[in-house]
Each structure stands twice: as structure tokens, then as C-alpha cells.
Amino acid sequence: MLNDNYPMWLKDLRVSMPLNLSYIPIGTACGILLHAAGFNHLLTILVSILVFSGGAQFLIASMLLISSPFYSVILMLFFLELRYALLGSSLSKYLQGQSDRFTFFFAVSLNDENYAINYLKFSTDKKWTPKDALNVEHYSVLFWTISNLIGSFIGSALKIDLSLVNFALTALFLYMIMMQLKSMMKLLICVISIGLSIVFMVLMKSTLGLIISTVISSLIGFALENYLRNRHPKSNALKTFKNPAGTPKEN
Length: 251
Known about the structure:
By secondary structure, this protein is mostly helical. Helices cover 74% and strands 0% of the residues. α10 (184-204) packs antiparallel against α11.
């Protein structure tokens, strides 16, 4: 076990290693898909560093594979990544007194996974500093980028059937959806979103329909959830599904 005598970079690396190792398989798969979508090795590195979001990069690959217009890709990424404004704001109280330069590099290196690690450490470890948090972010960027690059080399060495790529992307996003379906409310909004997506895609004959349906579904979900929480807080729609495996207390 590492103690205070070890350098900061080594202690921070130890904290981030479970996350870093988990990036290797998914990052490699992402690199393969990006190569199938037309990204060379340099572009793969750039998008890994500048975007640094697994969901966003898979979305880029999937939309490019169906020849979506550039503006549709940008708009979809904008709405997908809006959550980082909320994540960043919840960490801002721990970064008070830091320079604008530090805050900038911290913000561009933030993602869902390293946010979870840093928020937990800030909340439970009084010795955890903003520099430690930034190191965790940079380690995760490094491992993600290397994994993407490895996937890009594998993709260039192997001939990937694009139909298989489409299947993999569809399976990935279905998995992401299923992981979010924890209440009847979310299930309802998911169904509404699917229906609106079909309608607007047919009417507009463009992936811009996906963006419009996403915004409308989000607004409907926000309004409906707000109404139920204020007027019917005990509504069954707000209750989460019971975990078949039980909870620690139940077991």
C-alpha cells in the first residue's frame, strides 16, 4: 500500500488505475469503429484528446457511417455533452482559488468516469487536492487516447465489415439505454423519444430529426417529472425498479 513517502504522481496513478484499465477494451473498440468511419491515426488521436468522451466518439462514428451532415453531428454532440456543465459545476467548489489556466485544463479533461473518482475523493479524503484531481484526469486521457490509437491500428490491419460495425453500435446504444431505464418515467420518455425520432426522421428525411426529437423528449420528460414531483410525489412513475439481486440491506 502506498504511503505519503511516495511521489504524488504515483499515488494518483494508483487511484486512477482501475479506470485506466477499464478504458483499454472499450477504447480499443472505439478506435476500430473510428477507423471504419474514416478516421486516420492522427485524427483518432485528436478526437480522443479534444472530445474525450466514449459516448460522443461512438456517436460520431455511427453518424458518419450513415453519412449524416456535419451540422447534425455537431448539434447532437452539443446536446449529448451538455451534462458536463452540471458535472463541472458540482466540482467548482473544490477548485476555488485555482488559476484560469488550471480550470481550463481541468474542464477539457473532465469526463463521467474521472468525475466520479474525483468527486468521491474530494468528498471523503481531506488530503485530496485539485492537482491530484487533474492528474487523475490526465491519466485517464492518456490511457483512453492510447487505447483508441491501438484500435485504429487494429482497424487498419483488419478488414472490418461495416454491417458488423452498425450492429455493434446499435448494441452499444441499446445497452446504454437499458442501463438508464430505472423507473417508469424514464421508460415512458424513452418510448416517446423513439416515436418522435421515427416521425421527424420520416418528415425531415434527415438526421436533424433526431436532434429535434431529442430536445422535445427532454423537455417533455423535464415538465412531466417536475409536475409529478410537485403534485404527486408518491406516483408509481417516479419509483425505481427493484433490483432483482436485492440490496445490501436486504441481503
